[in-house]
Amino acid sequence: MSEYIPEKALFIAAHPDDLEFGVAGTAAKWVKQGCEVTFCLITDGNAGTHEAGVTAEQLAKTRRKEQLDAAKILGVQNVEFLGYDDCKLVNTLELREKLVRMIRKYQPNVLGCQDPTNVFPRADYINHPDHRAAGGAAIDAAFPSSEMPLLYPNIDAEGYPPHKANYVYIFFTTDDKVNQYVDISDTIDQKIESLRAHTSQMGDWDPNDRIREWAKGSGKQVGFEYAERFFRVTLKEPDKPEVGVGKKKNK
Ligand SMILES: [Zn+2]
To answer: Which protein residues have their CB within 5 A of the ion that is ligand 1?
Structure first.
């Protein structure tokens, strides 16, 4: 098993806490290896409560603060909020343009996003429509809009030239598509801590046991103690080769 360590990575998600569930171990690991990581949150998660008396504005403020705390735990250098409303996200041309701006601004080798095709992860669960809309908008921005010089001259004029990422790492995906595992054994503690930072969402639930169980299940596939898993799409082969990592367990 080999692993690619990008110089720059941009992870895009619908809600504060999605990235901690999906990619936090990978993000923390890449930061440790010298990667510049950016988190981009499309909505403020400002409908995510059952608590009486909390307004959407108060919740947005709380969740931005929690997201910044989580990013700090992971060492993530940049956090961008696009300020859309929770539960109302649609893959529009307006959103695509905002994401093209993010890609051109940060020039990532790896773009991470949610799987827009994952509607029914299980027989008892529907994947959140915001997750699907966010993923759809991100992949539509990644290809081909962000690389086309005739598109978005306004963004070019802001000093952000066209860019094509090497890879798209799709998370919250289904078993049949997974083709990439990242060993997060050294960063699983940071991942759990970063989830705890989302106190408004965790309530009485402590993420420790469940997150370890999930990451262990993913790691088992490839002989890692703990792993995060992705469907990786190659847009352009990177100049920098992958490096060999980990030990594959003997079957
Ligand atoms: Zn979410």
So the answer is: 15, 18
